[in-house]
Amino acid sequence: MTKKEYHIWQKKNTKGEWYWGVGNFCGLAKSPVQITGEALTDLEWDGNECYITKEKDLLGCANALVTDWKKQMEIEFPETTFSILWSLDTGDADVAPSVTLRFWAIRNGYTIVTKKQIENQPHTWLVLVNEKNKKV
To answer: 127 Cβ partners below 8 Å, 6+ apart?
Structure first.
């Protein structure tokens, strides 16, 4: 896993609305989408997934990526509120442990997952970024 591979990019859709991504999810890094509004949040949920496995320090690697994302969001996109969700699968005899990370922008109060929804889910954490900086 490389930092460049998961560096966040920012694009405008065909209506001039911002959306964010990592990598080249379905070519979105190259050409603007026609999706608008809250559907951009759904798109980010689908596309901005990072699956980490086969790392010696699985949690350390995941934490480093979340820290990098959070720092980039705070510096480059300070007026946008983001959520970062991470979940740990501890694995079993047939499945190796892994961490799945996702991020998305919160638009007009619309989000995919809230802290209340995951409060009883073991090994799942939600980080809100720039929550106090957002413009209403």
So the answer is: 66, 70, 83, 84, 85, 86
- Please give the model's pTM, rounded to 2 decimal places: 0.88
Distance CA 21, CA 11 (A): 8
Nearest CA to 103 out of 58, 71, 133, 135 is that of 71
Between 24 and 17, name the one with better pLDDT. Answer: 17
pLDDT tens-digit map of 73-107: 999 999 999 999 999 999 899 989 999 999 999 99
